[in-house]
Every structure is written in structure tokens, then in C-alpha cells.
Amino acid sequence: MPINLPRRAEELGLHYVEVGELCIRRRRRGRGFSYVDADGRPVRDPVVLARIRALVLPPAWTEVCIAEDPFAHIQAIGRDAEGRHQYRYHEEWTTLRNRVKAERLVRFGRALPRIRDRLERDLRRRTPDRIYAAAVAGRLVDRALLRSGHNKNGIEDGGRGATTLLKSDVKLNGTKVHLAFTGKSGKRIDKTVRDPILLDRLRRLKAIGRKRLFAFKDEHGRCCYLSARDLNTYLREAGHSDVTAKDFRTFAASAQAIAELARAERPESERARRRIVAAVMRSVSERLANTPAVARASYVHPLVVEAYEAGAIGPELMKGPLRRGLTREETALMRFLESRPSDERRPSRRAGPSAPARQAARPTGEPAAEAARL
């Protein structure tokens, strides 16, 4: 079942709001700012002004809107210097989301062996039907950590993912699958995967259809193209769990980060530890074809970095038996997550919050109405 964040927010005493409900506006006034409500009247309530100051909104932000409600899950929104929407969330909302993300990672880690078993079985299908195409796409996502690829992005702005790849984006050479294409936000993707089984199945798909790679024949022999929805439906059925192609990226990013941090030294100097964390985020971002800031904010779970800084991650995490269907790094991540106190992994149902968040803005914008499922 999808995780219903609005409902869980209510259980914490938070109010799930739309951006349009943030009705306090910030206005430049001399060297500082003043604030007005929805009716254009100055905000003078010292409690409200203190809460706004606690948000530490960057002076460079424009079009700043702030919640009147101190329990709104979004406390403020604005545009940064590059015109991207940035958000300030209530601290309890941030805690809730992190717990839900950890819960989702555990769920995916338990489903992953089943997914890989199903992929291996369906890759042996003789008929190049929808299931076969979805299995090949799933294998590619697992090995190359590609985005699923939505038709809207792939067709309108040229940014592609797995299901919207063109035949010309994929070169097959010996035992290597070489991918070269333009991904989301114009990012150039250049990856090489060594996988003879994947190479053989991709070669078979190349013989079907016209330009797009992931084509298949329906029951009437007509050529059809695999969609991101087809792929995600297949993955959910294969894993017997509510998972998507994106989970491969978040799980792999956290697994890689925890493995590299477990093998790294933990110097006494906080500055030296920050350098190590930054180096790990660069390594993860290269694999994801993202920036280090995005890798840390959107893919590597915060618990991983927090545990390293607290000295709770070390070489011993990489020891012990492998879990069936998982790599050494993936096993370490699951062992780590399952060893955390339950209140770090599951959204709490305690009484509501007491203060707004003072977290940094996300490096990339988010939809105004956040998805109810992470």
C-alpha cells in the first residue's frame, strides 16, 4: 500500500497544505524585510515574526510566501537566484519524511531479491512480449541505475530514461553495453555496463520496432512501446511490494555511501570528516549522473551520514554473511537500517510539533503539492 504522508502528518498534529495556502508575503523594506498578510495588512504579531525569523529565509529569495499556520507542513516557499522553487518545511515534517524514506528503503531491500529472481526468469522468455521487454528494462535499471523514462520528458525536451531510450543511444560491443544519451534536465549520460545476458536481450529488442529500443509485440503481432507505467507495474508485481524504478537509485545510492563510509577513516576533526563525506557524495553522484548536492539531498538517506558522524559506522558493518539476492554493500545497508531503533525508521504517532524547521533549502525544486507516497 502507498504510504499516506498527509494522514501521517495529521497523526503528528501537522496540517498538510498546498502552496497557495501560504498567505504571508515578504516585502523588501530598506535593508531588511516586512511582512503582510493576505489582506495586505502588516504582520506585527511578535510570535509570528519570531517564527519567520527562525526559518532563516535567504535574503536572495524572491516571491517568498510564508504559512500563517505554525503547524503547516510547508512553512515557506521562495525562488532562488536561478529561479527554482525552494522550500522550508516544519521540522516534524522533515523527521517524518526521513522515517518514511528509511521504511521504504527497508521494504525495497526485502523485495529486491524477489525482483531479481523474476527478472532472471522472464529474461528467458522466448516471446518478445510486454513482460520480456519490462524484464530487460528492469535489468538495465538495476545495472545502470537509469531513471524509468517518462514519455513527456523523453519526447518533449529530449531527456530520456530507460523506457524512452532510442536504439541509437545504445551500443553493443563484445560483452559491454554502452549508453550515451541526454537525460533529465539536459544531463549527458555516458555509462558502460558489462553484462552478457543484458547485452544479448538488448540485441534482440533492437530487431523490433523503429527508433525506440524498448519495443514488443502484442497478442495481435503489433509493435508497441514499453512505458514507465508498464515498467513500474511489472516491478511492483515482481516484488510483491509497492516499489518503483526510482527505488533502485535511492537504494543503490545509500548502499554505496554506507559502504564507502564504513571503509573510510573517521578522523577526530569535524572538518576532515566533512571532506570524507563530500568525497563519498561525489562518488555517488558520478554513478547516478547527478550533482553531489542532489545525491545527498535526494538519494543518500540522512541516517547514513548522521551515523558516520556519530561513529556508528565502521568496517565491521561490511562483515558477515551475504543476504540472498543482495550484494555486500546492499547487505550492509539492510543490516544498518534494520539495526536502527524503530522510532528512527517508522513515522511516530506522538503529539504534534512545537517549532518550525530550520533546515537548509533543497537544492532542486519540488512540486507544490508533494506526492502522498515516497
From TrEMBL:
Taxonomy, superkingdom: Bacteria
Compositional bias ranges of the Basic and acidic residues kind: 335-346
Enzyme class: isomerase
Limits of the DNA topoisomerase I catalytic core eukaryotic-type domain: 96-302
Keyword terms of this UniProt record: DNA-binding, Isomerase, Topoisomerase
Biased amino acid composition, Low complexity: 350-363
Protein name (Swiss-Prot/TrEMBL): DNA topoisomerase
